[in-house]
Amino acid sequence: MPIRYLLIIYWSEDDGSFIVEVPQLAGCMADGETYAQALANARRVMEEWIETAKELGRPIPEPKGGLMYA
């Protein structure tokens, strides 16, 4: 299943890892020692977030486009 949510990815000196935030899925975050590992972990966490929301009968937000800058 393709997951098309906006991801915010950044390096955290404090954690010594890449952090991935998914703003449209409340509380959905992941991390990883490498950029690729952080993305893979984020995909797994998003799938689990969506699966849990379905089980609980909660709404799943539709993916929105990225931020636009002028």
Q: How would you briefly describe this protein structure?
A:
It contains 1 helix and 3 strands, in the order E-E-E-H.
What this model shows, in words?
The protein is built from 1 helix and 3 strands. Strand 2 (17-21) and strand 3 (29-32) form a beta hairpin. A 3-stranded antiparallel beta sheet has the order 1-2-3, with helices on one face. It is of the alpha+beta class and 70 residues long. Helix content is 31%, strand content 20%. It starts with 7 loop residues before the first strand and ends in a 14-residue tail after the last helix.
Structural key phrases:
single chain; 70 residues; alpha+beta; 3-stranded antiparallel beta sheet; 1 helix; 31% helix; 20% strand
C-alpha geometry: globular
Q: pLDDT average, as an integer?
A: 92
User: What portion of residues is helical?
Assistant: 25-40%
Which consecutive residue ranges, at least 5 long each, have pLDDT under 50? none
Strand order of the largest sheet: 1-2-3
Which range does the strand content fall in?
15-25%
